[in-house]
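Supplementary Methods. Inverse-folding protocol.

Structures were first reduced to a discrete structure-token string of length 129. This string, shown here, constituted the complete conditioning input.
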């Protein structure tokens, strides 16, 4: 149990360190005059990153991280213009395709209700100290 707690703490420290490193690098590049796109440190990119981080920490199970990732991704794609091509026009179909693939490929949770109705013998031979 302790090794699991230490591994979790090390993962958090690694993620936090990388996050601080990236933010510091972006600020350094901006302050030295290098043109950094405006959408890199915007609220929607932070939302996208938070959604991906939550998904990573929960092994991409559940759907709370997915909502943050989709909303952040849509607004981030809307802010990105590559070669005067509006990436937002293709982002909605890409999100729908990705959502469909997620629904198709997600692991299925099979609940076996037989185990709840089985009678299990009680062991009275075990003595408590």
């Amino acid at each position: 149990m302790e090794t699991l707690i230490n591994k979790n703490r090390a993962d958090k420290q690694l993620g936090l360190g990388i996050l601080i490193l990236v933010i510091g690098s972006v600020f350094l590049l901006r302050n030295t005059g290098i043109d950094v796109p405006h959408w890199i440190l915007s609220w929607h990119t932070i939302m996208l990153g938070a959604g991906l981080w939550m998904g990573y920490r929960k092994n991409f199970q559940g759907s709370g991280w997915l909502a943050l990732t989709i909303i952040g991704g849509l607004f981030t794609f809307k802010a990105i213009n590559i070669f005067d091509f509006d990436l937002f026009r293709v982002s909605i179909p890409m999100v729908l395709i990705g959502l469909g693939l997620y629904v198709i490929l997600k692991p299925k949770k099979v609940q076996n209700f037989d185990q709840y109705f089985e009678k299990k013998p009680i062991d009275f031979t075990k003595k408590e100290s």
